[in-house]
Amino acid sequence: MVDLNSIKEKINRMSRSASSMWQLTYGAFIEHDVDLIAKALEEENKLNSLEDEINKEIIGKAGANLNSKEKSEIIAYANIAGDFELIGDYCKDILERIQIKIEEKLLFSEEAVEEYKDLYNKTKGALDEVVFILEKDNPSLVKEVLRKEEHIDSLVDMYRHNHDQRMLAGECTPLGCNMFLNMLDFTAAVYYHIKKIAKSLLQIK
Predict the structure, then answer these.
(1) Which CATH architecture has domain 5-201?
(2) Which of 114, 132, 115, 108 lies closest to 194, judged by CA?
């Protein structure tokens, strides 16, 4: 048997960094805090470094005599590492918008903030469950995560519609409008990669 403990430990660290980056990103948005942006970007650096380390370990096992179960697990962990790294990328995209929001002193309507808060919390809930499953090293629990899966695309469509109505009513600036829509889309992408991680965990027996 190939020892996967090192890879699993790094995956766990990636999950914690992704969770921390997600929370820091939201904190920067709510508090207009550039220091939180810097802290979030530190977590993204950790995600990039850990993914590189995992890929090197996986490549190092390429010549090993692996059975089908070991190959399946290694592929699943490689995919999970890639998805965590992409979550970091989407957080970074959101952070870039928040930086502009702070510099331009842009404000979202109270309704927009509540809508984004709802989308953030649903995404955070799914991410928290994935982090818990990885820490417990019990992939079978992932079925519950997928059973409770939110229809994020439908939610984003609804919030986009609400946003269009606010725009027509003149309640937001063109730059603020664009930024809000970007943040919705990037958050939906984060949720999508959390779902992909959950599905990859189903491949691990």
Answers:
(1) Up-down Bundle (1.20)
(2) 132
